[in-house]
Design a protein that fits this description.
Layout: H1 3-8, H2 11-18, E1 23-29, E2 37-42, E3 46-51, H3 57-74, H4 79-85, E4 93-97, E5 102-105, H5 118-122, H6 124-135, E6 137-138, H7 152-163, E7 168-179, H8 183-191, E8 196-199, E9 202-205, E10 217-227, H9 234-247, E11 251-256, E12 262-266, E13 269-270, E14 277-278, E15 303-307, H10 309-312, H11 335-346, H12 360-368, E16 370-372, E17 382-384, H13 387-395, H14 400-407, E18 410-414, E19 430-431, H15 437-442, H16 445-453, H17 461-483, H18 500-514, E20 520-524, H19 532-547, E21 551-555, H20 559-564, E22 567-572, E23 581-586, H21 588-593, H22 597-602, E24 610-611, E25 621-627, E26 635-640, E27 644-649, H23 655-672, E28 683-685, E29 692-696, H24 709-713, H25 715-724, H26 727-732, E30 756-759, E31 767-770, H27 781-784, H28 793-797, H29 801-807, H30 812-823, H31 840-852, E32 860-865, H32 873-888, E33 892-896, H33 900-903, E34 908-913, E35 922-927, H34 929-933, H35 940-949, E36 953-954, H36 967-970, H37 976-986, H38 996-1009
Parallel strand pairs: 3-21, 3-22, 5-20, 20-21, 24-36, 27-33, 27-34, 29-32, 32-33
Antiparallel strand pairs: 1-2, 1-4, 6-19, 7-10, 7-11, 8-9, 8-10, 11-12, 13-14, 15-18, 16-17, 22-23, 25-26, 25-28, 30-31, 34-35
Family: Belongs to the ABC transporter superfamily. UvrA family.
Organism: Rufibacter immobilis
GO molecular function, one term: nuclease activity
């Protein structure tokens, strides 16, 4: 059920009774880590819940208040309807009073469907489709001329004027430009009583069993009548024309028998010169999700999966027999290899030579096909369809496995038929003010708003009459998107490419448009991905929602949002078990005067320190030249390596286009042979200066309850091995597999180790309920009897990371990975927490911890996308320490960030802008934070200058390792950079690494030995 649906019905009923209640009162909330808290939240105000990550903000906002609102809404259904839906469990709270209908706007509610776009979810595109269906003018895709439609009387009158006194043949077109033998069609025409037809311009008599060449393209018209048109014989002409229109599906062709000149007429839209006719437009003519409008080549996706020479043979130094043609693999005794062998033999080439040494013509014939006939006709002709054709057939196979196998070797490219506009060519030739609907969908919202602004002046009186109300709706919805700072998006932008904050702000804009009153809105960090400049717009949008007469609760860490709130609730004091209490609640002014951690950071009593002396780096650079993808304007990006680098700029300025869509795919292809193609660029220098690239984004670590931090980081493999090595497990003959909840043996078979049962809800999201057999423990009784330090495998999964660090202190292989999770500020999550319950920022930090737990090489480039998502000021300080530690080992860290707390501690900033969308795409400033703060261009400078003016400057901090250096390391130690590199050369990177203390001792022993 969508929250929008859930709130719509009861609003009218409940508004009158709740509007006088001044507070939402929560009594005895104990959900997750909440410690029996009671709270009064003022209604019809903007309320911010803040506090350390994992303190219980979401547990109170979403798992208590929203869950109770949903449950109450479900109870308004009839008993019959509830029997299909199942009951929603009551949250662990004594009671909640003064609760309005609740609408939740979370980060993870967007669709993963490639057909879901900004235009479809805001409904702007739906209104544009209606506008085009009713007011657009059609043009021929062949001649570009305006299409016309005529009534039956107009057609008859036109024929009388232009063919009067001439020998004329009235024809009904039934086949236009299509292949086939049409045996059945000719038989059908004969049965209707017609004797002749015109086939490919030639009049012929119809005979039994008649057919044409099935492989050639044909035009077929039925001869309806032969006559000499005259005013006196108008009735006969009119009857023949109507008969032809009936058989020709609204189109008639009139032929001058003497000159062979033809003229098309149509009841529908038609190009009189070529006879091309369009169906009358309907809204689905412009829908890329409908067969009536979608491009037939890409099926409305705008992109096609293509097999290219490089994608199927990425390494030309391999021979075909050694797997040079990647999808076919190494040589086997199968049909396709025997065909390839025979073909190469004809070209005097071999399977065993590298592909690069095969003659160009032989390679072309092998890929695209070859046909050789015996000139004397004694032998069968040799025909080989080509490897490309063979693989394309597999791509259309009925078997999902076969299709998945081939798709591994395809590349995505813009559809050549529709040029990425997603619609068929007829739909793209309906124009309004000389623009087709695809061009509007590719404009950014700001550009679209300008086009729609005074459109009436450019339309005819009739068009204006039809379009007036539609244009009002379109302008209103576009205005809401501009108000929440999303003017840089375009309507065809796929929803799956949006950040959590962007998708929330789109839903926020939609909600403002619904104009509901008396509703409680709960939002989860809507400021994610938003530059400080646009924060004011977002805050104003939330205040507008409040001023309509709604209550707005926002879970947020952003300074501006906290200070702009009417009421702030600070939850803490710590994370996980150390949180779950109300630390302070009141106006921002009252909160600032309290001594809480949040108040200290807001009032600058505490802050993240900034190094006076920036790192020099290693003197080497990575240079990307001529990046022109999306809105980038021939950008040259220089990244000085061995530094903490930060890319900033307003939303939509081109940061993601430059880093995620251009730089990362280039590096990923170079180091790991990845398939994804980068956006256009000229060249890249300095690839030899790094040895690998790691991108840590915010995509989920798993989409089912089976995925969790323990399995993702790989620590669960070590924990299972530990349990399998226990004496009890050995006596029982249990292997590590016994302690896996993904395979049969030790798991609970009722829920197949998920701990939850999935209840399918058909038209609603699936609901997960605890398994009735194992009560959520995942394992059977026998497995749970094996214990380590008194804890079963389930107890370990239920431990917080913080507890696990103490519990496994003597298990170095396990400790290293868990310690890293703790260092990135995830001490409050449990090892077995379901991936579906992690926020985008938490998922990103799990990935970051996974990478940090591996041994770095000292020459790695880490790319992070807004790592501060979901982080409190104190957690940002922890993250800053972790990232600085990576850089101090010689690595380079590149982050895309809007949060000034992290931007200010960077060594080198690259600011992109100055605006979003078409007005962005250039580097406006670069250098140290202090240098960028003085830049006269771009919006980052002003906010950075303010931030630096209140920051604490320190000398470069000395990073303290977890264990003191051994005596061996302390004596005669070389420079840190060299030490790291030397050591890494001797110690290959391992998936399972030893903890820092053991690593140091090992290095010390090696030096002694040397």
């Amino acid at each position: 059920m969508t929250p929008k649906d859930s709130a719509a019905t009861p609003v009218a009923k409940q508004n009158s009774s709740t509007v006088d209640v001044p507070f939402i009162e929560v009594y005895g909330a104990r959900e997750h880590n909440l410690k029996n808290i009671s709270l009064k939240i003022p209604r019809n105000e903007l309320v911010v819940f803040t506090g350390i990550s994992g303190s219980g903000k979401s547990s109170l906002a979403f798992d208590t208040i929203y869950a109770e609102g949903q449950r109450r809404y479900m109870e308004t259904f009839s008993a019959y309807a509830r029997s299909f839906l199942g009951g929603l469990e009551r949250p662990n709270v004594d009671k909640i009073e003064g609760l309005s209908p609740v609408i939740s706007i979370e980060q993870k509610t967007t669709s993963r469907n490639p057909r879901s776009t900004v235009g479809t979810i805001t409904e702007i595109y739906d209104f544009l489709r209606l506008l085009y269906a009713r007011t657009a003018e059609a043009f021929s895709y062949v001649t570009g001329e305006k299409m016309i439609k005529q009534s039956d009387d107009q057609i008859v009158q036109h024929v009388l004027e232009h063919f009067s006194g001439k020998k004329t043949i009235v024809l009904a077109p039934v086949v236009k430009g299509r292949k086939g033998h049409y045996r059945e069609l000719f038989e059908q025409i004969r049965k209707m009583g017609f004797l002749r037809a015109r086939i490919d311009g030639e009049l012929v008599e119809l005979t039994p069993k008649m057919q044409v060449d099935r492989y050639k393209i044909h035009d077929i018209e039925i001869v309806i009548d032969k006559l000499v048109p005259s005013v006196e014989d108008r009735y006969r002409l009119s009857t023949s024309i109507q008969n032809a229109l009936q058989h020709g599906k609204g189109t008639v062709l009139v032929l001058d028998a003497d000159t062979n000149a033809t003229q098309f007429y149509s009841r529908h839209l038609m190009d009189p010169a070529t006879g091309i006719a369009y169906d009358d437009p309907a809204p689905n003519t412009f829908s890329f999700n409908s067969p009536y409008g979608a491009c037939p080549v890409c099926n409305g996706l705008g992109e096609i999966e293509e097999l290219t020479e490089d994608s199927i043979a990425p390494d030309k130094s391999l021979s075909i027999s050694r797997g040079g043609i990647a999808p076919l693999g190494e040589y086997r005794d199968i049909w396709i290899f025997s065909q390839i062998t025979a073909l190469l033999k004809r070209h005097k080439a071999s399977l065993t030579v590298p592909i690069s040494d095969i003659p160009a013509q032989a390679w072309h014939d092998l890929l695209y096909g070859f046909e050789e006939e015996d000139p004397k006709g004694k032998r069968e002709p040799f025909i080989f369809e080509g490897v490309m054709s063979f693989l394309k057939k597999q791509l259309e196979s009925d078997s999902e496995n076969v299709r998945a196998w081939i798709q591994e070797y395809t590349t995505q490219s813009t559809c050549p038929e529709c040029n990425g506009y997603r619609l068929k060519k007829e739909s793209l030739h309906f124009k309004l003010d000389d623009k087709h609907i695809g061009q509007l969908a590719e404009m950014d919202i700001a550009e679209l708003a300008a086009w729609v602004a005074n459109l009436e002046e450019r339309l005819s009186e009739r068009q204006n009459l039809i379009a007036r109300e539609l244009l009002k709706e379109i302008r209103k919805r576009i205005g809401f998107l501009v108000d929440v700072g999303l003017e840089y998006l375009h309507l065809h932008r796929s929803v799956r490419t949006l950040s959590g904050g962007e998708s929330q702000r789109i839903r926020l804009a939609t909600q403002i448009g619904t104009q509901l009153v008396g509703v409680l809105y709960i939002m989860d960090e809507p400021s994610i991905g938003l530059h400080q400049r646009d924060n004011e717009k977002l805050i104003k949008a939330l205040q507008d929602l409040r001023d309509l007469g709604n209550s707005v609760v926002v879970v947020e860490h952003d300074k501006d949002m906290i200070l702009a709130a009417d009421y702030v609730v600070d939850i803490g004091p710590g994370a996980g078990a150390h949180g779950g209490q109300i630390v302070t609640a009141g106006t921002p002014k009252e909160m600032m005067e309290s001594g809480t951690t949040t108040a200290d950071y807001l009032s600058h009593r505490r802050g993240i320190p900034v190094r006076k002396q920036k790192r020099e780096g290693n003197g080497k650079s990575l240079i990307l030249r001529g990046a022109t993808g999306h809105n980038l304007k021939n950008v040259t990006l220089e990244l000085p390596l061995g530094k903490f680098l930060c890319v900033t700029g307003v939303s939509g300025s081109g940061k993601s286009s430059l880093i995620h869509d251009t730089l990362f795919p280039i590096l990923n292809k170079y180091f790991f042979n990845a398939k994804r193609e980068p956006l256009p660029y000229q060249e890249i220098d300095g690839l030899k200066n790094i040895d690998k690239v790691i991108e840590v984004d915010q995509s989920p670590i798993g989409r089912t309850p089976r995925s969790n931090p323990a399995t993702y980081t790989g620590v669960f493999t070590e924990i299972r091995s530990l349990f399998a090595s226990l004496p009890e497990a050995k006596i029982r003959g249990y292997s590590a597999g016994r302690f896996s909840f993904n395979v049969k043996g030790g798991r609970c078979e009722t829920c197949e180790g998920a701990g939850m049962r999935t209840i399918e809800m058909n038209f609603m999201p699936d609901v997960y309920v605890p398994c009735e057999t194992c009560k959520g423990k995942r394992y059977n009784r026998e497995t749970l009897e094996v214990r380590f330090k008194g804890k079963s495998i389930t107890d370990v999964l239920d431990m917080t990371v913080e507890h696990a660090v103490e519990f496994f202190e003597n298990q170095p292989r396990i400790l290293r990975k868990i310690q890293t999770l703790n260092q990135v500020g995830l001490g409050y999550i449990t090892l077995g927490q379901q991936a579906t319950t992690l926020s985008g920022g938490e998922a990103q930090r799990v990935k970051l911890a996974t990478e940090l737990s591996k041994k770095d090489t000292g020459r790695t480039l880490y790319i992070l996308d807004e790592p501060t998502t979901g982080l409190h000021f104190q957690d940002i300080q922890h993250l800053s320490d972790v990232l600085n530690r990576l850089v101090d080992k010689g690595n380079s860290v590149l982050i895309i960030e809007h949060n000034m707390d992290l931007i200010k501690v960077a060594d080198h900033i690259i600011d992109i802008g100055p605006e979003g969308g078409a007005k962005g795409g250039t580097i406006v400033a670069q250098g140290t934070p202090e240098e960028v703060a003085e830049s006269p261009i771009g919006y980052t400078a002003r906010f950075l200058k303010e931030e630096l003016s209140t920051s604490h400057y320190v000398d470069a901090p000395v990073l303290v390792e977890d264990e003191p250096e051994t005596e061996d390391e302390a004596t005669d130690a070389p420079a840190p950079e060299k030490k790291t590199r030397g050591r890494k050369k001797k110690e290959p990177e391992a998936a399972e690494a030893t903890p820092p203390a053991a690593e140091k001792k090992k290095a010390g022993r090696k030096k002694k030995a040397e």
